[in-house]
Design a protein that fits this description.
- The complex is a heterodimer.
- Chain A is of the alpha+beta class.
- In chain A, 16% of the residues lie in helices and 39% in strands.
- In chain A, strands 3-2-1-4-5 form a five-stranded antiparallel beta sheet, with no helix packed on it.
- The longest helix of chain A has 13 residues, at 64-76.
- By secondary structure, chain B is of the alpha/beta class.
- Chain B folds into two domains: 1-306 and 314-327, HypD, alpha/beta domain 2 (Rossmann fold, 3-Layer(aba) Sandwich), CATH 3.40.50.11740; 328-363, no CATH class.
- Helix content of chain B is 39%, strand content 19%.
- Chain B has a five-stranded parallel beta sheet with strand order 2-1-7-8-9.
- Chain B is globular, with a radius of gyration of 21 Å.
- The two termini of chain B are 39 Å apart.
- The chains are: A alpha+beta, B alpha/beta.
- Chains A and B meet through strand 4, strand 5 and helix 1 of A and helix 1, helix 7, helix 8, helix 10 and helix 13 of B.
Chain lengths: 83, 371
């Protein structure tokens, strides 16, 4: 139920309603950016960003640097050298 | 980066399994460590990816919490929704998972078969679109879910207000995560060793919303994502906390979760909802401050007030042992009805309805005869 899936913001389709077109697993969907837009932030600033989508709303802006960091920790460390 | 495949990569999973196994050897628990995942999405992922079978025998037991909102929806909510769906001119919309949940006499699906107008939507925004397209019909959205889903329905309602869509209303049955976690942890002797906190609730509330768990219950907590690498990484950090004798909330889902949550979403929740006080949870009974209702300024968009539906008595009592399963005291296969009278194709209890229910996950990925 609390499922949220990653998608990439492709276009702003309705500025007034803060609606965007987001590609999720190869499918384009209408998604609201309202949860991510603090006052004064333009929807266009999210173009090209990856977001987590839940029931038609983008719920989180994925932090690429944090994402890479978690994965790189796994690559660099051999099991024996961990602690 | 696609943010999915990378977190399912076999190499990464193998590295983590080695590390977790090493830590488990070091801890050498006398009995299996009891790790509770609150969220139904985690329960589903653990079974789907077979994580319960990958750890050394007898080292970890996953205790499945009540974090599947479909599973804890009381019969009264289904009864009220059916009552509304049967009224002339009303279309009742909700998420697909809800349709097969048993009410007192029938489910929404059975009511639809008898002519009630019930429609499945992917998003509350789809219900709003129906209201725009059909000004002659009353579109009611049965809003369920935890804090993950609350902002979506709150923002949809605010959009309806802005557009002056008088034929749209909410049947609000949202529930709150921290109250449910407390209810489980306060129970007699949950005897847990750690908690994996729900990643998507935490995107909205922030990881700090779970600070009460180490503070009040002396348990380590790690917020986790939903892929195998996320869950094993969370388990590793729980084990490290235990080895080091620490209890804290750690954020294992840093790519999506911030400590203080998502301000616009929290703002929408605060504007639209207020605590309802006590609410009934299927299988768990009544829990204080565990649900929200619409604030009085949005009374016109409250389906119960608009249609004058009288709530049926909501005891939250459940004639089945589902509550024992949700409190972690009974494993799904230990229930006398599991896989016999209660199956995914003919569910008696709600835990067998949703794919995220512990019983449905066991049944699907473990087979009904497994221990």
């Amino acid at each position: 139920m609390c499922l949220a899936v990653p998608g990439k913001v492709l276009a702003i389709t309705d500025r007034g309603r803060q609606q965007a077109e987001v590609e999720i697993g190869g499918v384009r969907r209408a998604v609201s950016l309202a949860c991510l837009l603090e006052e004064g932030v333009a929807p266009e600033s999210l173009l090209g960003c990856w977001v987590l989508v839940h029931v038609g709303y983008a719920l989180s802006l994925i932090d690429e640097q944090e994402a890479r960091q978690t994965l790189e920790l796994l690559k660099e460390l051999e099991p024996d050298a961990l602690r | 980066m696609r943010y999915v495949d990378e977190y399912r990569a076999p190499d990464a999973v193998r590295v983590l399994l080695d590390r977790v196994s090493g830590l488990l050897q070091e801890i050498a628990p006398a009995s299996p460590l009891q790790i509770m995942e609150f969220c139904g999405g985690h329960t589903h992922a653990i079974f789907r990816f077979g994580l319960h079978q990958t750890l050394p025998e007898g080292s970890v037991e996953w205790v499945h919490g009540p974090g599947c909102p479909v599973c804890v929806l009381p019969r009264e909510s289904i009864d009220t929704a059916i009552d509304l769906a049967r009224r002339p001119g009303v279309t009742l919309t909700t998420f697909g998972d809800v349709l097969r949940v048993p009410g007192t006499r029938q489910s929404l699906l059975q009511a639809a078969a008898e002519g009630a107008d019930v429609r499945v939507v992917y998003s509350p925004l789809d219900a709003l679109a129906l209201a725009r397209e059909h000004p002659d019909r009353e579109i009611v959205f049965l809003a369920i879910g935890f804090e993950t889903t609350m902002p979506a329905t709150a923002l949809t309602l605010l959009q309806a207000v802005r557009e002056g869509l008088g034929n749209f209303s909410l049947l609000c049955r949202h529930i709150t995560t921290p109250a449910a976690v407390r209810a489980v942890l306060q129970g007699p002797d949950p005897a847990l060793d750690g908690v994996i906190a729900p990643g998507h609730v935490a995107t909205v509330l922030g990881s700090a919303a779970f600070d009460f768990i180490p503070r009040d219950y002396r348990l380590p907590v790690v917020v986790s994502g939903f892929e195998p690498v996320d869950l094993l990484h969370a388990l590793e950090r729980l084990l490290l906390q235990r080895l080091e004798g620490r209890c804290a909330v750690e954020n294992g889902y840093a790519r999506a979760v911030r400590e203080q949550g998502l301000p616009p979403a929290l703002d929408a929740i605060g504007r639209v909802y207020e605590l309802r006080g006590e609410a009934g949870w299927r299988g768990l009974g009544r829990i204080a401050d565990s649900a929200v209702r619409l604030r009085t300024e949005y009374a016109d968009f409250d389906a119960e007030r608009r249609f004058g539906s009288r709530p049926t008595p909501a005891s939250g009592e459940e004639p089945l042992p589902c509550g024992e399963v949700m409190r972690g005291r009974l494993r799904p296969p230990q229930c006398p009805w599991f896989g016999t009278r209660c199956r995914p194709d003919a569910p008696l209890g709600a835990l067998m309805v949703s794919a995220e229910g512990a019983c449905a996950a066991y049944h699907r990925y473990r087979g009904s005869s497994a221990p």
